[in-house]
Amino acid sequence: MNPETLKDGLASIQTFFDAEERKHPSFLLFDFEPTNFFRQSEEYCRKLLGEWDSNFKILDVGCGDGTDAITLAAKSNQVWGIDISQARLVRAQEKVRIMGLENRVHFDLMDANHLEFSDNYFDLIIGNSVLLFLDRERFSHECLRVLKPGGRALFSNESLANHPLLKLRRMLPSVRERERIADRLNLEKIIEIGKLFTIVNHREFYLTSVLLSPFLKRIGKYEIAEILLNSLNDLDDFLIRIFPMLRNYCWLSVIELEK
C-alpha cells in the first residue's frame, strides 16, 4: 500500500509512530534480567506460543522495527510484518537485508483494520500492544478471516484502562499525546473481541506490583529487586484468584484467540 492511500482517520496514529522511538516490551526479546518488570507476562506468552518453528505462515501486526518478525522467522517460517509507520518499516527492511532473510520476512505498510491477505492464510497472528490503536470489531473479523482453521492470534502487553495509578500517570503532559490516539481495554472489550472465536483465553497481570515499576531499574542490580517483584506478583495472583473482579484493575492482559 502506498502511504497516500492510508485512510485520513489513521493519520494521527501514523504521525505518532513515525516519531515514536520507544520499543514496546516484547516477549520475544527473551529478557530475563531482574530489571525487566514484564518478565512474568512475557514468560506466560512464550508458554502460550509453544512450538512455533513449524513451517508456519505468521503475521506480525504492528511490527515496528522488525525485531520480532525476524525472531518469528526462526529456521522455517514465513513472516509478514505490517505497520502503519513508514519510518519504522524502513528500519525493519534494513535489518532483514543485513540478516539475509528477504525470502522469508516481508514487510508492508498496511492498515490492520483492512488486511490485504487471502482468507485462511496464516497459522499464527502476533500483536504486541496493538489493540488499543485499532478498530477492534473490524480487526477481529479480519483476524478470523485470514487465520486458517485452528490458527491462533496472540496479543501480548495489551494495556488495560482502569488501574487507578496508571490513570493518574496518563494525565501527565508527556503521556497525553499517546492517550489521544489510544482506546484502552477492559474485560468487557476483551470478551467482545473474542466472541467470534472458538477459544478465547485471557490472563491479567500487574496489580499491586505496579508500585514497584518506577523503581525497579534503580534497585535492579540488587537481589532484593527480584525478591520484591516476585513477591508482589505472587500477591497479585492470590488477590486475583480470590477476587476475580480485580482483573479489570490490572495493568496488562495477554489475549489468546483460536479459530
Describe the protein's architecture and organization.
With 259 residues, the chain is of the alpha/beta class. It has one domain (3-205, 251-258): 3-Layer(aba) Sandwich (Rossmann fold). It contains ten helices and seven strands. The protein has helices at residues 11-19, 39-49, 67-73, 86-99, 136-146, 164-169, 173-181, 187-194, 216-219, 223-242; strands at residues 57-61, 78-83, 105-109, 122-128, 147-159, 199-205, 252-258. A seven-stranded mixed β-sheet has the order 3-2-1-4-5-7-6, sandwiched between helices. Strand 4, helix 5 (136-146) and strand 5 form a beta-alpha-beta unit. The model is unreliable at 1-6 (pLDDT under 50).
Q: Number of helical runs? A: 10
Radius of gyration: 18 Å
What would CATH call the architecture?
3-Layer(aba) Sandwich
Instruction: Outline the low-pLDDT stretches.
Output: 1-6
**How many domains, in number, for the residues?**
1
Distance between the termini: 27 Å
Average pLDDT taken over every residue: 92
The share of residues in helices is 25-40%
Multimerization state: single chain
**Which structural class should the secondary elements be placed in?**
alpha/beta
Name of the CATH first level: Alpha Beta
- Run of helices and strands: HHEHEHEEHEHHHEHHE
The biggest sheet, with number of strands, parallel, antiparallel or mixed sense and barrel status, is:
7 strands, mixed
Q: What's the CATH H-level homologous superfamily?
A: Vaccinia Virus protein VP39
How much of the sequence lies in strands comes to 15-25%
CATH topology: Rossmann fold
- The beta-strand count equals 7
**Strand arrangement in the largest pleated sheet:** 3-2-1-4-5-7-6
